[in-house]
Amino acid sequence: MNHVDDLLPHALQLYWDLALASVQAEALQLALAEDLFETLASPSTPENLAQIRKWQPEATRHWLTLLWSMQLLDRSRAATGEWYYTSSEVARRYLAPSSTLDCGEAWRFRLASLRDFGAGLADGLRGQHRPAPLASGKRWAAAASSHLAREQIAVTAPAACELVSQRLGHDAPWRLLDLGGGTGQVAVGLASLFPRMTGVLFELPEAAEVAARQIAEAGLAPRLEALGGDLATDDLGTGYDLIWCSSVLHFVPDLSASLVKLHAALKPGGELISVHAEIPEDPETARRMLSYYLPLLWQGRRVTQAGELREALLAQGFEVCEERPITLPMAPATALVARRRAQ
Length: 343
Hints:
Elements: H1 13-33, H2 36-39, H3 46-53, H4 57-69, E1 73-77, E2 83-87, H5 89-94, H6 104-119, H7 121-125, H8 137-145, H9 147-165, E3 174-179, H10 185-193, E4 197-203, H11 205-217, E5 224-228, E6 240-246, H12 255-265, E7 266-276, H13 283-298, H14 308-315, E8 318-326, E9 333-340
Parallel strand pairs: 3-4, 3-6, 4-5, 6-7
Antiparallel strand pairs: 1-2, 7-9, 8-9
Helix pairs in contact: 3-4, 6-9, 8-11, 9-10
């Protein structure tokens, strides 16, 4: 007779899953390195694939079965009993180099960065090692020139377009400040969706140069300007209807001073959309968030406790009109919409 406790995960399951995840990560890393998801755009048996690639047939079969269990491959059985594997929709959409939404290199970059950080936890704990700064202009420019653009196109820009579409009419004229805009894909996506929108992308100077090229290539230079500078010291301009600010406030030296500056940059009635991770009270959600943001915290950067950013906005004269969780693959985040009160 089964007891209820027999149907529940073991108390150790979470920690064994951590070990199992390393095998799954290696399986995906290998699939990306071997360009598997392009190769399996057409169905193939493991034996045929192994013959073409000069792999071991039995090992190939087991590897493909694991990727199928990870929902990266689909499979069907022929009348002869052979399994045919093909790339799943999510793999074709987000992990195949031919896709405009390909995030394969972004994923590999995240994996390598987090592995390097994890390997240095003991040294960090003893004060013997600190990760390289994440916010230098050269590092952001290098990321913007490689994996970050695809990640913005696939993840951040669609989220921004969805949020903004719920607040502004598609035919309305309005002015945007894309603060910390990275490669410019959020600003480009919004400008494509809102034909009467104009705006400024503000970034570190080296990254702003990359964004300017992306804006020009999209044919949007007459409507969008990429401005290089430092949020703490440089002028942002004024009269904005909307400020998009995603994962920027983790890096500012003085949160209150930065929020005062953003409040002043908005026109009366203008809105700030802030998308940032905060440390929640729920352990499961906190585990996902902290696994990603621990490197920032160890650098002395800011990741606020749940509700802290909302209170900081209120303290600087903003009216918080909406708060909602936002789905991002890296870590849970909260979208706060804060308005400068009309005078």
